[in-house]
Amino acid sequence: QIVSPGKVRGVDNLMDHMKTVAHKIAENRLSELVIVGHCANPEKAEEAATYLKGLPNAPKEVVVWEIGPVIGTHLGPGTIGIVWVGEFNEDWLKTKIDLRFWKDSESKKE
Fold first, then answer.
1. C-alpha span between 51 and 18 (Å, rounded)
2. How far apart are CA 45 and CA 51, in angstroms?
């Protein structure tokens, strides 16, 4: 299942949010491989990968991978994402501002 938390605006907000989610990934992964994907943003992807590697329960292998042009066209330059095999809980995406944008759109339809 592919799940998107929505959009996080601003590099500082992005990295803060990714660090919060990274802790949950390290605790709940089922694989020793985690991929940090990026679209024309290798510096921030490396920063996220380094952070992941330094966590307690860190995966044995963290790979930085450039997102291809088909997906990159839809996401845009600067995009960073984390891919893992393991558990997922929607509550991980909650911040001061709830990033689960699809919940708002579903409740408005009712």
1. 10
2. 10
Rounded Cα gap, residues 52 and 33, in angstroms:
11
β partners of residue 65 = 37
> What is the spatial distance between Cα 110 and Cα 104, in angstroms, rounded to a whole number?
10
Distance of CA 107 to the CA centre of its chain: 25
Evaluate if residue 63 carries a pLDDT over 50. yes
What are φ and ψ of residue 47, in 5° steps? -60, -45
Helix or strand (DSSP H, E) at 90: none
Q: Rounded to whole angstroms, how far apart are CA atoms 5 and 90? A: 8
> Is the pTM for the entire model greater than 0.85?
no
Interhelix angle 11-28/42-53, rounded to 10 degrees, is 40
Closest alpha carbon to 85 in 37, 38, 33: 33
Residue 82's nearest CA partner among 20, 31, 25 is 25
- Between the two ends of the chain, the Cα-to-Cα distance in Å is 25
